[in-house]
């Protein structure tokens, strides 16, 4: 068994790309500055040196062209892994993703597969300028034909990316950029959970917190503080947003009777709305309180000096926990 006591999420993704490229010569990495620079977050550092410029490709600054090229490569039997440098840069490629990539399989009546993985560093917390701290996951989860996943720790970052690359469906792989340097254990020989399986990361009996990506750590911190106050909070890491593992979430809510959904994206029309509606339908007779949502405000992402006020933090989530438990 190979166990790393601690490895950052960024290094886990790098190791995952390396493992996938070693296992399959058809796996390509492409994007802006992914080669010589190793990416702006150095996630692809060293890959071009080891695999060459034909497999780790520095592209022009043209997201629509990058994704369009990846679609063409996938149709010729390759497995491209595209990096969108920052979340807010993906929108020039939105048409290619939702009009072509997501629909190609259905349009061809299942005869064509398009195994493209699009890596997107997303969400805030790094003090960046405009267009560098977006959370567009709900825009993609709404589109049939795309799978949407996001890890919250190094082990998931390592395994989920390899699973996404090995599959035959297009996958949007959201990377929580402010967690890139968070460290956690990684066992490179363990059996990973299924790609779209949610995980109970903290057991509890009074209330369920559901989160994904960067907010999982916040919710685990909330659970610790709540425990000091005599409240037992269960934390569910959703891991996947399309599809969502509602069965795991339902089992948790049937036990606790309360649910608070937490994400960085704006609450308005966010992923939490779909989760709240589904769980209300599934668990109506088990709920002791309405499903509450905590997220960003319905406004453009603010300047870096204000992002601490914008991002859901410990106090805002604890307030929702208290409100749910007060019913």
TrEMBL record:
EC numbers, comma separated: 1.2.4.4
Cofactor(s) the protein requires to work: thiamine diphosphate
Domain Transketolase-like pyrimidine-binding: residue ranges: 7-182
Domain of life (superkingdom): Bacteria
One Pfam family in the UniProt entry: Transketolase_C
Keywords: Oxidoreductase
Name recorded for this polypeptide: 3-methyl-2-oxobutanoate dehydrogenase (2-methylpropanoyl-transferring)
Organism: Streptomyces nigrescens
